[in-house]
Amino acid sequence: MQGKLVAQSPDDEPVEVLLEKIKAEKQKLYEEGKLKKKDLAEIVVTKGDDNSPYGKILSWKTSTLNRVTNLYTGNSINATQKQYYFSSGVGINYIATKDVDFNGNITYDNGIKIPDTYLDGFKISQPQSILLCLEGGSAGRKIGMLDQAVCFGNKLCNLSFYSGNNKFLYYFLQSPQFLNDFQENKSGIIGGVSLKNLGNISIPLVPLAEQARISHRVEQLFEKVNQL
After folding, report:
1. pTM score, two decimals?
2. Is 173 exposed, middle or buried (0-12, 13-18, 19+ CB in 10 A)?
3. Is CATH 3.90.220.20 what the domain over 15-227 is classified as, yes or no?
């Protein structure tokens, strides 16, 4: 994430347009009762004189994850609950940390599903959202992008742009800059990052068209690597 993967274009919509889209989406979610009033706080951005590598790139600005992404952890269930309530084979798949591989794959059909009658007690992560492990030896290392709606465990965090390219977000969360910031925010005996500290990590605000170009370029590079 140094602005060198793809060419920048003066024809791209400026980041200010993206900011307005984010604000509009957050306001909509608040009016629908899906977002708290505190989350409507003004999106703080920096540029130029920012000490991070992002603010020095033409047309990029910098904010924090809690300002531009919808992030929340899931719900834990114990072995008894799994056996008696959530093993009927009916409902929305429930994803635990063990179901997310280090290579980004997610195992959906693990035998645990949340029936409709219990959904009010669970948070749901939508398709194209990202699940990131926040706790234990897998913290920051297990990450996957969803292709279906799921319920998920409390050691996993949902992340999705209010407005933006979630593929770009997915690759950003695997970048050296993010992983370094993530490691610096670890605490506790088992090693983990709190939701608050995760939200305070910086993220580059990049024009939408450039986000798409970057994501496409990264995928091309991965394809070449996999051919070796």
Report:
1. 0.91
2. buried
3. yes
